[in-house]
């Protein structure tokens, strides 16, 4: 994914947060999904997560009932990325209307999966807030990844990857 695509996805995530008044760090992912017009469901047959159109709204399916675990938080944000980026929810009426029973699963390494991951990272850890929090938690120019992960309620791996993409640590 090129830098321009990444910036566009980050802008979209920030715009959605602004329009729907979603404060970061996000405390309750179920509340976010409801605010956006969706519902979270649990299905033990789902490995990670999936999203499906449901009338004018949507359903996110999780395999685990711990909605606010760091893994499920990222999965939910990832599925919200599919919702806006690939299904056109609330931003591309023609695309949204053409979506029938399409299901996006959080599996694989396609361009769409990478885009949904970028969206999830930007949605949970917006660049400006991440950089500000990184400055607050840094000591002697060393990032405190556990503190960043805890602040944004994400895994340490997600915080490391966001720090890499924002140029705070090298690949």
Automatic annotation (TrEMBL):
Residue stretches making up the IrrE N-terminal-like domain: 60-163
Protein name listed in UniProt: ImmA/IrrE family metallo-endopeptidase
């Amino acid at each position: 994914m090129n830098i321009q695509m990444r910036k566009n996805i980050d802008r979209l995530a920030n715009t959605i947060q602004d329009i729907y008044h979603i404060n970061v760090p996000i405390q309750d992912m179920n509340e976010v999904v409801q605010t956006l017009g969706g519902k979270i469901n649990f299905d033990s047959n789902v490995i990670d997560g999936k999203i499906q159109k449901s009338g004018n709204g949507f359903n996110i399916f999780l395999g685990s009932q711990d909605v606010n675990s760091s893994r499920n938080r990222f999965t939910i944000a990832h599925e919200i990325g599919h919702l806006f980026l690939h299904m056109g929810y609330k931003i591309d009426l023609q695309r949204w209307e053409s979506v029938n029973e399409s299901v996006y699963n959080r599996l694989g390494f396609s361009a769409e999966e990478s885009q949904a991951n970028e969206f999830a990272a930007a949605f949970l850890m917006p660049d400006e807030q991440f950089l500000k929090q990184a400055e607050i938690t840094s000591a002697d120019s060393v990032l405190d990844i556990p503190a960043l992960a805890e602040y944004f309620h994400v895994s340490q791996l997600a915080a490391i990857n966001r720090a890499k993409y924002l140029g705070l640590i090298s690949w």
